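Predict structure. Chain length: 130.
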Amino acid sequence: MRTDKKIMTWATRVMVTFLLSMSVGFSGYADGSGAKIVLDGNWEDNWRSISPSMPVSAYITSDLLFIQSSTLRSDITVTIVKNKTIVYEQNIPVTQTANIGISVTDWEEGIYTLELRNQWGGYLYGDFVR
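Prediction complete.
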């Protein structure tokens, strides 16, 4: 019975994440209609893969920052810094990393740095303009 509850909880979280990502239109930004944030660094996720592509991508629009993970193998700690000050930080559990949306509507204009970390020492970073 406990395993069934865990599966239902996981399935519910996946469905809610999917529905929320669709409601903010995330899938449309992967085609380049949002400004892609160029990420640099090394993303280890404790998984062997022959794919050279980066499993994490990020896009910015006028009001939302989107982060997408294609591996779903690790939690992601999202930190956003402006002028050496953390303006946003949150640990996103693996079950919610497929599509992450962060509102930047009330943020001041300027240059921000997006930093992404996982539990295996993976670290990606990239600058964006709001």
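Summary: DSSP finds two helices and nine strands in the chain.
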